[in-house]
């Protein structure tokens, strides 16, 4: 369902994909198509961590979050909508967390 509803995920354009290694345990994968943009963050560390990711201005909405109780997880630290500050997205992540965010298209 998520891939069908997001042009950024349904397309296969490698030129509209960016992958960044943030620190030693964090991967940020960004895909976009016109104003549709998604960000998948994979925290591979065994301890909770604060991620500081460079992004475009605006807010990001959680689409899927692995520690959510929906997935029988312990619960997420992340709010449903997360604003950027000075072009940075700051995320408090649980160990081994994966989160998919969608941009609000502003910025």
Explain what the structure shows.
The chain has two helices and eight strands. It is mainly β and 107 residues long. It has a six-stranded antiparallel β-sheet. The protein is globular, with a radius of gyration of 13 Å. The mean pLDDT is 88.
Could you give a short description of this structure?
Helix content is 7%, strand content 47%. The protein contains two helices and eight strands, in the order H-H-E-E-E-E-E-E-E-E.
Number of helices: 2
Secondary-structure element order, N to C: HHEEEEEEEE
Name the beta content range.
Answer: over 45%
Order of strands in the sheet with most strands: 1-2-3-8-5-6
Q: Mean pLDDT, rounded to whole units? A: 88
Helix-and-strand structural type: mainly beta
Measure the end-to-end span.
26 Å
- What gyration radius follows from the Cα positions, in whole Å? 13 Å
The share of residues in helices is under 10%
Judging from the principal axes of the Cα atoms, what is the shape? globular
Total DSSP E strands: 8
User: What low-confidence regions span 5 or more consecutive residues with pLDDT below 50?
Assistant: none
Major sheet characteristics: 6 strands, antiparallel
SSE diagram, text form:
Layout: H1 2-5, H2 7-10, E1 17-22, E2 26-33, E3 36-43, E4 49-54, E5 59-65, E6 81-83, E7 88-93, E8 98-103
Task: Spell out the key features of this protein.
107 residues; mainly beta; 7% helix; globular
